[in-house]
Amino acid sequence: MAKDFLEKAVAAVPSKRQLDWMKVEYAGLINFGMNTFSGREYGTGFEEVDLFNPTAYKPEQWVKVAKLSGMKALVLNVKHHDGFCLWPTKHTDYSVKACQWMDGEGDVVADISSLCAKHGLKFGICISPLDLHEESFGSGKEYDKFFMNLLEELLTNYGELYCVRLDGATGEGRGGKVQQYDWSAYFKLIRRLQPNAAITNCGPDVRWCGNDKGVCRISEWSVVPSHYRLFDDETCEYIPSKHTPDYTQPDIGSIKKIKKFDDFVFYPAEVCIPMRDGWFYKKAQDLSIKPLSKLEKIYAGSVGANGSMLVGLSPQPDGMMNEKDVETLMTFGAVLSLHFEDNLALESSMQGNCQLDELHSATRALPDKQGYWHSGYNTKKPELILDMGDDYDVDRVVLKENIETGQQIEEFTLYAEQEGKWKKVAEDTVIGTKRLCEFKYHIRTRRLKLVIEKHRGFATIQSFEAY
What is the pTM of this model? Predict the structure, then answer.
């Protein structure tokens, strides 16, 4: 039984959609809507449309700041729970089309989509199925049709989307009515119209990490028991299970947690956090902006811990981003560039104590080589030694598994050679798409050794980098 469950866990690999989504690593979530003008975090759905009136609307500033901060994509919150739509939809009067702003000709979705293309960022949308304004909310199929009409406009009129982030919010609409969302139908529509888009947050491609504090697990496994993904990723049909997923558990992927299950999926985590105390701009929160040190910590604990980082951006009511937000984000981008500017592993050599075959030799783990290192099967404590050719001050090491073949590494130790002896400088659990090992002080060394202490049948390293 133990062997069977482990073999099934090892066999769980990512889809092409998931691989493309994971390459983004760090993205922004723009929250700009009726709440920006009402000063509420959650609107009522009955704010007057003309309250939406950005007088100095500069969406290119948002996109440029995102680019300079190191983000590779932007996700626009196109409709929050209040129901106000940032595009001129045909299906409700509660949208920018009904505003005096830009004489009803405004389209924030089109603006961000085209600006992302101009500046080389991927573009995605976030939308809430909760709608406090729409009269049909709570009616069942009638509302599902309404919501899918909105989705169809978004999925067909704004170019290729790299993700569709569906907010899982529930609540009472007009008259206290509650809607049972037809998630399967929503997912199928997205698959049909945007087949390359990852459906995230509560979709079949990417899961919510369990909080909005920018914190992922110490061991954030992408391979988890199948009941965590409620819908099949291809058919989008609901999969009934006797197990109820708890996304807030501190451990959902270790051997201890998965050994009683016999079916597994590859289901990576998105780690999200607003730049401020809330997702929408409020002047009172101008002093609550995450400091640079906090952003660095979140990055290391998300992107650097087999997760993906999604940071909430909150433009002001005038349509500009606050100067302090801009300063912090741009400084963060500059720091990231400096941290990962000089990869000392380039033009270095790599040796290992084992390999599957010549096509998967240790050399393949160098960042400028094609392919990946494969330890071979059931090898005890496989290791790699990176020789940089001379002594350098090393501040951080980046490790990446060949995630296309799944996630297998459970524990590893990193050593630096100093005065002819190997000194332990880091130890951790999972690697996954990326593991960032940061050192408190510079480590002067020529050679670094990676020892895989525990793995699930075999180990792979796609890249072993030093900075």
Answer: 0.96
